[in-house]
Structure prediction request, 893 residues.
Amino acid sequence: MFEVESSTRIERSSVMPGTEELIINMGPQHPSTHGVLRVILRLDGETVTDCDCDIGFLHRGTEKIGENITYTMFIPYTDRLDYIAAPSSNLAWVTAVEKLFGWEIPMRAHYIRSLVAEFSRISSHLLWLATHALDIGAMTVFLWCFREREMVLDLFETAFGARLTVNAFRLGGLFQDVPQKFLDLSQEFADLFPGRIGDYETLLTDNRIWLQRTRGIGVISADDAIDLSLTGPVLRGSGVRWDIRRAEPYAAYPYLDFVVPVGENGDVYDRYLVRIEEMRQSTRIIQQCLAQLPKGPVSCKVPRTIKPPAGEVYHSIENPKGEFGFYLVSDGSETPYRVRIRPPSFVNLGGLKKLVLGGLVADVVAIIGSIDIVLGECDR
Amino acid sequence: MEIAAEAVIALVKIAVVLGVVSLVVAYLTYLERKIIAHIQQRLGPMRVGWHGLLQPIADGVKLFLKEDIIPDKADKVVFVIAPIMVLVPAFVEYSVLPFSSTFYITQVNIGIFFILAVSSLGVFGIVMAGWASNSKYSLLGALRSAAQMLSYEIFLGFSLIGPLMLAGSLNMQKIVEAQSDVWFVFYQPLAFVVFFIAALAETNRVPFDLPEAETELVAGFHTEYSGMKFAFFFLAEYANIMVTSSVAVTLFFGGWKGISWIPLPGFVWYALKLGAIIFVFIWLRATLPRYRYDQLMRLGWKFMFPLVMANIFLTGLVKYLFL
Amino acid sequence: MPDEAQSNGQEEGSAPAAAQAPPAQDLRELVEREYAGTILEQSAYKDMADEATLVVRLDALPQVGSLLRDHPSARFRLLSDLTAAHFPAEERPFHVVYHLYSFDHNRRLRLKVKAHEGEQVPSVVSVWSGANWMEREVFDLFGVSFKGHPDLRRILLPEDWGSHPLRKDYPLEGRGERVYTKPRRKEYGE
Prediction:
């Protein structure tokens, strides 16, 4: 009835004589594939018997661009990777480059970076919760989350003048100190937000339908998750207590107190709980950052033209979606020789097939939501 | 002469009911948008008229003027008939509803039976729409819809047996009269719960809106429809909500009968009760996530079916022993 | 730099002189004990512990990988990243880079293999399943082929894209080798 492009591995097969399995194309323009992801599903009734992802619709060659511009010029490009949590991407890039140079960053810059990175985590998790709940049919959570996300974006605007692609950090620290208004509003938000998380949980956490739709769906064991290189909340949902903020602390995280939440069963529900708790912990980190924020300069001395020594470094941070890293090869010139972006969404999406096989179409939607992908950074 | 007069009166009644129902259904969409908006802490439609009051009219005009697209590979005849097949039964059901003690189009001895029979015709339209669209999402949506509506119709029918046993009649008027003292909802709470859940499923409302589950099946059986044909599906959905709510009012909440010490006309009582039930429909939509297809079936057959059977048995037992 | 590190490593012992030994010396010895001669170079950027790099002989990669994954003193269970870099001037221009992480010891290790143009790199999908998509990406953007990969297709670029953009000789503008033939669209009603 319909032709499927040859680029997919999935071909039609007959289970019984005279019957035909249904091949269904989800995306790239589908309400719940969160961007331009195309998932090709082979269905037996409504059961998924095979799954293949077609990605790359948003491929912009960011790694190639990075090889041809200077280290400073690449910062705005990182905004466009994980655009839901742009400061996190900025942070990964600047920390990776600073590791290459070996600069000492002032404490105040470290604290502000952690503070903003946690805001970006909250903003990302809010968008995830909003769309994930909407995928499963809970409409109100969607709008409630956007209400708070709006506040976070306003905060970014106060501090950096932009809401989504904030270009927050510079090599060596910050462009300038954040205004006092930003700190006041941050405090206000941090006091208000835990109550709002409670609101979302009222609608979902103990809701029978929500439990039925998420518990025991998309289960992955800790060993399988590690084998598939899954990171971030997906890995923690399977019970692996690994957070790069803890294991290999960067910015101000060595001085901050927070809990790394983990799940038990590795299903969609556990990943939901992990992210909800991460939002709470992020609020705690924000409170601590605001209380401990040291005075002083926000940037170290950075030469006008920066040329790193030849060599290679890999540095990764805990992005809201997982391990977000940069592998940099320098040949001693002003531009990097090789920029590799280690994308959490791309790698986590690689595990999708294992998660969805044997489930129903409705579960595919829930599972894609629980992996929390952003195609800007998946396709690069 | 008399026959002619009767016919004229009947036609006028039909015109009035049809007009009022169409208008109410249109404004039901407005009400839904407003209520959900306020639950979600936003304003909803505000631009067209005072607080967006003319929004449904604007929507109607827009749908009328929209290009009417028939997909190239669709089965054209069936594609065109399907929305009519859905809309007509939804409106026919109003013919036996008693809106007050004196205002009704017709009084049939098998009123409730007639409603059940006609409402089950709607599923044909949905299956036809899914099939004729020649699209996978539509087909899946239609199949889900057929399975869901056919099974939940059984519970819907069975849940009504309890109140009917108490009333001793299928005539809608007589059922209302039987509730002069106590509404049946107090005698038959179990039946009402099952009826309400089944009604949600029958009208494809949250949490049973799988046939048009936006995030899985794009728009389910009406994915390929646009313009007035889409509006027909939309109208039919809301008209069905009205009918099922009306049946709930008639069978469980005493129809037009109000509380005796508050002097209000019958149809006002009727409208109030209807509004309250519709509000719950809308409220649920803003609150609950969606069931999965197999869970929906399990809920129906493993939980509601035994419950409704037990209810019938109990009602019969009590009636036999004590009345 | 790599030669230096290599000679240092061979002269000194492992455990007591750990402060002087270059990072990953213990891992190098571990691998050499099992598969002698498979580690070709050893280095670390500014001697940072988490930048330890071992260059592995191409054909020995899966064995070395399994050993590093399973041995109790290594336990590199997470393949954190897999990528490549192109050095056209070198004899073996394609460096395929593996970033490993060990939860048990909280340490990182970088493995590298160097391949000729057109040479097949053994796939590590059998060692770490997560390598599946990452190897496809390297295949897509560098044109490095992997032996034993279950499903080696392009992943980011269209199936019929003529070349591999992350190679250094890929032109940044102009026509160059950027060959892309637009597939013919079906006309309406055809």
Observations:
- The mean pLDDT of chain B is 82.
- The longest helix of chain B spans residues 2-39.
- The two ends of chain B are 47 Å apart (CA to CA).
